[in-house]
Design goal:
Layout: H1 2-6, H2 10-23, E1 28-34, H3 35-43, E2 54-61, H4 63-66, H5 69-78, E3 84-88, H6 102-107, E4 112-114, H7 118-127, E5 132-137, H8 144-157, E6 162-166, H9 171-181, E7 188-192, H10 193-199, H11 206-211, E8 215-218, H12 222-238, E9 243-245, H13 257-266, E10 267-274, E11 278-287, H14 296-299, H15 302-305, H16 317-321, H17 353-361
Parallel strand pairs: 1-2, 1-7, 3-4, 3-5, 5-6, 7-8, 8-9
Antiparallel strand pairs: 10-11
Helix pairs in contact: 2-12, 3-17, 7-8, 8-13
């Protein structure tokens, strides 16, 4: 077993594998909500040490993957505006839009910059006052505070050449919509540790209360994930459901008060469009009116006028994000769709289920 052979504390992992085997009494499908969990499970071959009756499936936790095609197309269209520089995290660079990508747009001569932090985009705006810097605000609650801080920093500097195309999303609303739909048959959920450091474990209380499903909040080290799986299997065996925090070194029950205050000052709840899930009420955020001058959607309304609805795509990323299809079940996987020529974000993103399966599980 690859993971056990390579892990430095083989006795611990073997003990965890034994405990998992003792708890697994029947079929159990566990959704690892976060794309980082998906990649870690594939990289460390965790599925090879799970009991045969326990299956891991991916969920809507890759922020790049769930960004709607229309939102990506709109941001790409923003790059055709005079004197506009598109700024994004690197994992969005190769995600295909309807006609091109950020990488393709840059090859055509558009100004595209990659940053590690939204504050880097603010600094670029300060350094180039003759250009307008449009930042693509993508991500869940983990990256949302950094975008909020960037907007407040731009306001403090009095910048007029910086704005955010905001497509940030909130994880609990998507999970509620996914579970309420009943399409994905899951026995429990591994909830993402980094998101939960912001929103607190109480944000998931609705999952056992309304759907009777056990949850475990875990980190991203292999042992963290195995402990989370153990917690879910134990809850199933004991016939109970709760939100168990096995990532106590980083996560607490209530939300992070400073992050919550920052987000409330800059953002207001809004509906959001998700790839594979459609429009989910209250699952996104918009920039508050007090910071409207930093809202790229409001500053460049003409962008929407040039857009047409994206045509149907052969990419099955939506079904994979809903947990109703595995990457290898897609007829294009490793054939028409590869990392070199991706047809959808699940094959591009460093947290994408297809990218993880292609790299580690083929």
């Amino acid at each position: 077993m690859k993971f056990i052979d390579e892990f430095r504390d083989q006795a611990l992992v073997k003990d965890l594998a034994r405990r998992l085997g003792a708890l697994a009494e029947g079929p159990a499908t566990i959704m690892e909500v976060c794309g980082t969990h998906t990649m870690a499970a594939a990289r460390f071959a965790l599925k090879t040490i799970l009991p045969p009756s326990v299956e891991l499936i991916s969920g809507p936790g890759c922020p790049v993957c769930v960004t709607a095609q229309s939102d990506l197309d709109a941001f790409l269209a923003l790059g055709t505006e005079p004197q506009v520089v598109l700024v994004s995290f690197g994992d969005m660079l190769r995600v295909p839009g309807t006609h091109t990508s950020l990488e393709g747009l840059r090859a055509q001569g558009a100004a595209v910059r990659v940053v590690y932090s939204p504050l880097d985009a603010v600094e670029l705006a300060r350094q180039t006052p003759d250009k307008h810097l449009g930042f693509f605000g993508v991500g869940f609650e983990t990256t949302m505070p950094a975008t909020a801080l960037a907007i407040q920093t731009a306001a403090a500097y009095g910048l007029d050449n910086f704005s955010v195309w905001c497509v940030h999303k909130t994880m609990p609303a998507a999970l509620k919509a996914l579970l309420a739909g009943g399409e994905a048959r899951v026995s429990g959920l591994l909830c993402p540790g980094h998101v939960t450091t912001i929103i607190g474990t109480a944000a998931y209380d609705f999952i056992p209360a309304e759907f009777g499903l056990p949850c475990a909040v875990t980190g991203f080290e292999p042992v963290d994930m195995l402990l989370g799986i153990e917690s879910i299997l134990r809850q199933i065996k004991e016939g109970k459901a709760c939100v168990d925090n096995v990532y106590t070194r980083a996560v607490s029950v209530p939300a992070n008060p400073r992050a919550r205050e920052l987000l409330a000052a800059v953002f207001a709840p809004d509906d959001a469009s998700w790839r594979g899930l459609g429009v989910i009420p209250g699952s996104g955020v918009k920039i508050r009116d007090s910071y409207a001058r930093f809202d790229a959607r409001a500053r460049f309304p003409q962008v929407w006028e040039r857009l047409t609805p994206p045509p149907p795509s052969p990419c099955r990323c939506g079904e994979i994000l809903r947990g109703v299809m595995r990457p290898v079940e897609c007829p294009l996987f490793a054939k028409g769709c590869t990392p070199a020529q991706p047809l959808g974000p699940c094959m591009v993103s460093t947290e994408g289920a297809c990218a993880a399966a292609y790299r580690y599980e083929r």
